[in-house]
Amino acid sequence: VQLQASGGGLVQPGGSLRLTCAASGSIFSTNDMRWYRQAPGAQREWVATVTSGGTTMYADSVKGRFTISRDNSKNTVYLQMNNLKPDDTAVYYCYVWPRNYWGQGTQVTVSS
């Protein structure tokens, strides 16, 4: 199984980005998909989950600003990030639960 994350970049505070994670193989639709992030010098932290049934959950730090979604027909999960803040700067990883597959990460930098 391969997970290919993309969509990161440099954005000013208040801006938006959409991250995409495409999964190969047939594991996608029956598993929960999560996004995590890791800032420099910090531990990796959970950001959001979309379950196989479509239920979404968010960390308090991103609630109301980020939206996770999935398209099972494309084996793809998205993270729409709005009103970005400098504290959102991190490498973002997609993750398949409970299969324990990690994507390679995409860098998000929020800076003026």
Overview of the molecule:
- With 112 residues, this protein is mainly β.
- It is 0% helix and 51% strand.
- The chain contains no helices and 11 strands.
- It has strands spanning 3-6, 9-11, 17-23, 32-38, 45-50, 56-58, 66-71, 76-81, 90-97, 101-102, 106-110.
- β9 and β10 (101-102) form a beta hairpin.
- It is globular.
- The model has no long low-confidence stretch (mean pLDDT 93).
Descriptive terms for the model:
single chain; 112 residues; mainly beta; 7-stranded mixed beta sheet; 4-stranded antiparallel beta sheet; 11 strands; 51% strand; globular
* Average predicted confidence as pLDDT: 93
Radius of gyration, whole Å: 13 Å
What spatial form do the alpha-carbon principal axes imply? globular
Uncertain spans:
none
Number of helices: 0
Overall number of strands:
11
Quaternary state reads single chain
Distance between the termini: 37 Å
Based on secondary structure, the structural category is mainly beta
- Share of residues in strands: over 45%
Specify the biggest β-sheet.
Answer: 7 strands, mixed
The helix/strand series, from N terminus to C terminus, equals EEEEEEEEEEE
Fraction of residues in H or I helices: under 10%
